[in-house]
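Re: weekly structure request thread

Next one in the queue (187 aa):
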Amino acid sequence: MMRYFLLMLACVMGMTANAWAGPKLKQIDLIGLKPGVTTKEEVAKLTHASEGDFVIGGHRLFCFPEYRNDKLDGLLCYMGRVALIPEELWEHTKFSKASNIEIHTTLYRGLVKKLGKPDMEEVFKVRNGMGQEFENHLVIWQDLKGNQLRLLARAGRIDSGILILQSAENIKAEKDKREAEERSRKF
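Done, posted below.
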């Protein structure tokens, strides 16, 4: 699941390469989560983490942590409507009912205060299945180790955004995998 969104973000990042400013943070820290540093046990101690949800910026988000050698390797969180949960059950969940845009705006403002100006920021247009255009906003912070925090207002659906926290090791593994897949394609 995280792989799908990472691939989508890789495409978006390709078109925004000119906006990259370069890292200035020593270590990305999101509610005490540090990629490649925070242990599985430390993640489990966070409020609601054992239930698959995290409170970030005052919003309760549906998140999936990934681990490498018992350290946090990645975290994928949905903002707004979560497509994985059937419509009839969504209203009864404990997750934030705020729109993806409202959550994105709250997180963006809070993260700028905490982490400083993003290393990359891009506003671009996306379309729904009916051809209607919407503005999208991608923001990336990268620390000196190569860990990244990405925030995308709309991802896959116009009513759902994502937040991705990813370790440098995970980013490299994903890149190596994509390159190997490209090399294996023969025409």
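The chain has one domain: 2-181. The first strand starts at residue 53 and ends at 56.
Next request, please.
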